[in-house]
Amino acid sequence: METERQQRPMHIIPTPSAGPAGSVGPMHPQRPSSSPIQAFFTRNRFPPPPAGVHPHTHFLALVSSRRWESSSRNHRRATTAFNAALLSEFTARFGNDPTPPLETWQLLCAVLTPQREVPGSITQCKKVVKRTHVNLVDLMAGVENVWVFRNRGELEAYTRETGRYFPKRDVKGGGGLVRCLLREIPKEEQEAATATVGETGEPSEML
Question: What is the pLDDT of residues 143-196, one digit of tens each?
């Protein structure tokens, strides 16, 4: 599987440093100790994610250490709080304006497609974002390596493989950029249920 991933086209999406407004920071940033993700693990009396460990992977380690069943109240509460931390990481970087200004759209485009010229209008920026296939959890977490997939099918396969879904219900307050980045990808069990009853419905999980 690792060989297959290495063959997928990707580029590095760096996390911004404390520099001029709109600037993009170092390739190997240090997450500040006061970040929402760090604060989440601190509140749960769990060590912060070590360097190079994805926050979602570290969250799963927390869940495992506490032996929380997926259907338990503790698991649901922790998942909601972790998703809120992810969303806060994203909005700290890009804001949560329901109608972001052109400069914010351009910043996101520069991050997603650094090899291309930044569009000059909001309409063109939206087109770039909508046709760029990235996992929202990866992007929100500010990890060093974010896969940019060639098509939706590759993104769906990666999301199911890693389990990195971002629930639609937790998007509230994320702003216009998050809504544009959302892709509806039902979990496998949802697809199986749909096939059984022969109906289609709105997926509860997104990425």
Answer: 777 889 999 999 999 999 999 999 888 888 788 999 999 988 877 654 443 333
CB 136 within 8 A of CB 206: yes
Q: CB neighbours of 156 closer than 8 A, spacing ≥ 6?
A: 185
For the segment 101-151, what is each residue's pLDDT rounded down to a tens digit?
999 999 999 999 988 999 999 999 999 999 999 999 999 998 777 889 999
d(CA 206, CA 184): 5
- Rounded to two decimals, what is the model's pTM? 0.76
What sign results for the dihedral spanned by CA atoms 204, 161, 159, 107? Answer: positive
CA angle, 39 then 40 then 42, to 5°: 60
Phi, psi of 166 (to 5 degrees): -120, 115
Radius of gyration of the chain (CA): 17
